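Journal club prep — side note

Before the paper discussion, L.F. wants everyone to see what a predicted structure for a comparable chain looks like in token form. Sequence:
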Amino acid sequence: MTSQAEAQAQVDTARSGLWAAIALSAALLGFIVGYAVSARTGIEPGYFEAAEAGGYGVPASAKPKASEDLQKYYENLLK
């Protein structure tokens, strides 16, 4: 037979494990949902680190610097 204290300790351990599983599941689900939303917004990783993103002292009208070949490539995508 187990004592009441041992039984309570087992219940507490089970509850702690349940809360750990819930926290881990919530974190994983949050990451997956955040990643899925990010993939659909059109914002690429690294965008906000660019000086042209605003908030870095560069006016919003400043064009990002791209090579002439890259600009032609993107212009041809629209055709």
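L.F.'s comment for the group: The CA atoms of residues 5 and 51 lie 61 Å apart. Keep this in mind when we get to the figures.
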